[in-house]
Specification:
The protein is an alpha+beta fold. It has four helices and six strands. The chain has a four-stranded antiparallel sheet with strand order 1-2-4-3. It has a two-stranded antiparallel sheet with strand order 5-6. A hairpin with a 2-residue loop joins strand 1 and strand 2. The protein is flat, with a radius of gyration of 34 Å.
Length: 230
C-alpha cells in the first residue's frame, strides 16, 4: 500500500503517500502533443510547430498539470478504498518531485464522519398555512421577469409616451432667470417614464404623451427627500 492514514481529529485524516517514483513524463508528453495540434507560431503552419519549441514554451505548465492530475488520481483512489466522503478540497503538502518523478506527498482530508439516523416516526409536524394576495403574486412574477426583459423600439412615430416605457431624451436645465444650469444637461439620456423620473414625482407625468421630436418646457420642483413631509 503506497500510503498510510493517521487520524488528526474526529473528522480529519492525514494521508502520507510514498512512491519509488511515479513517472509523469508520459502524461506531459501527451499534453504537449495535444497542444502542438492547435499551437500557432510565426513561421510555422498551425499544428506544425516543432515539439521542442512547444516544450520550451508550455513544458512547465504541462508538467505542473500532469503532477496535479496524478496526485489527485492517487488520492481519489485512496479515499474510495477507505470509504471516505471528503468535505471540500483536501489540503496537499510536502510534495517531493524530482526529475519527472513524484516521490511523496501528504494530504489532509476533512471527511463526513459516519452517523446513524435515529427513529423519528413518533414526531409530528404542523405546517403553518401561507397565503398571498393576487397583487403580491403578480408583483413577484414581475420582479423575476424584469431582469430578463428586452427593449424594443417603437417604430410608430406618432406613438406617445406612457408610464412604464423608456425614452432617449436630450435635456437642459435653466434657472428662474433662464440662465443655463450646466449640471442639468444631457444628450441621448435613457429614462424610464414613471412616477419618479429624475427622482421627482412629477417628472414622468410631465413627459407622458410626448412623441418623437417633441419639445416641452417643464417646471419641476426640487427632488423629494426622506425628511420631507409626505
Amino acid at each position: 500500500m503506497p500510503y498510510t492514514v493517521e487520524n488528526t481529529n474526529d473528522y480529519t485524516k492525514k494521508f502520507q503517500f510514498h512512491f519509488e517514483g511515479l513517472d509523469t513524463s508520459p502524461a506531459v508528453e501527451k499534453a504537449l502533443k495535444e497542444k502542438q495540434k492547435t499551437a500557432q507560431m510565426k513561421g510555422f503552419r498551425k499544428g506544425k510547430v516543432p515539439l521542442s519549441l512547444i516544450k520550451n514554451l508550455y513544458g512547465p505548465a504541462a508538467e505542473e498539470k500532469a503532477v496535479h492530475s496524478m496526485v489527485s488520481t492517487e488520492l481519489a483512489q485512496a479515499l474510495q478504498k477507505e470509504n471516505l466522503r471528503p468535505l471540500g478540497s483536501p489540503e496537499l503538502k510536502d510534495l517531493k518531485y524530482e526529475e519527472g518523478l513524484i516521490k511523496a506527498f501528504e494530504a489532509h482530508v476533512q471527511y463526513l464522519p459516519p452517523f446513524e439516523v435515529k427513529d423519528f416516526s413518533h414526531l409530528s409536524f404542523t405546517q403553518r398555512p401561507v397565503s398571498i394576495s393576487e397583487e403580491e403574486f403578480q408583483n413577484e412574477i414581475k420582479r423575476h421577469l424584469e431582469p430578463h426583459g428586452q427593449m424594443k423600439t417603437i417604430e410608430d412615430k406618432n406613438a406617445t409616451l406612457s408610464e412604464g416605457q423608456f425614452a432617449v431624451i436630450n435635456y437642459r436645465g435653466i434657472d428662474e432667470n433662464e440662465n443655463p444650469i450646466e449640471s442639468l444637461k444631457g444628450e441621448e439620456y435613457l429614462v424610464e417614464i414613471g412616477p419618479h423620473t429624475f427622482g421627482i414625482p412629477e417628472g414622468g407625468q410631465a413627459m407622458e404623451g410626448m412623441k418623437v421630436g417633441d419639445k416641452r418646457d417643464v417646471t419641476l420642483g426640487p427632488p423629494k427627500t426622506s425628511s420631507d413631509d409626505p
